Amino acid sequence: MTDTVGYCAAILTTLSFLPQAIKTIKTKDTSGISLLMYSMFTIGVFGWLVYGFLKRDIPVFVANLVTLSLAGIILTMKIKYK
Amino acid sequence: MTDTVGYCAAILTTLSFLPQAIKTIKTKDTSGISLLMYSMFTIGVFGWLVYGFLKRDIPVFVANLVTLSLAGIILTMKIKYK
């Protein structure tokens, strides 16, 4: 039951980053994105990834692995096309 | 050690939502915010809150409690001033 809640939460919070990632890849417009915010967020998500790994918490690990990829793409585009 | 990683991650991902929340409260400009994204995200964060509670995982619970408040404020502003 607990893991189901975790996976549902993971799907929702992860998917909510997809529109931003797709939009940024398509338009290459990153003017509305805060570099500081995304840098902090990306490092933080990496922290959650390590935390999920250390705690052997699969939903936390998987969710943050996908979110890290998406946030990483957005951050890379921001640095490349600013 | 594990909890320290969790708290550092929590502080980074939570703080990264502060600039957006402050900006939205100040300007009441929510035109650049996706209603679908924030709705999904807010429900997802609520899911993580329940997950953290069920797992007795303090860093996950606290991080998502603060993020839920910030995302909730942004979502409320979006619905009110759209």
From TrEMBL, chains A, B:
TM spans, by residue?
A: 35-54, 60-77
UniProt keyword annotations, A-Z: Membrane, Transmembrane, Transmembrane helix
Top-level taxon in the UniProt lineage: Bacteria
Location comes to:
Membrane
Q: InterPro entries under this entry?
A: PQ-loop_rpt, SemiSWEET
Database matches in NCBIfam families: SemiSWEET_2
Protein name in UniProt? SemiSWEET transporter
Q: Which organism is it from?
A: Candidatus Cetobacterium colombiensis
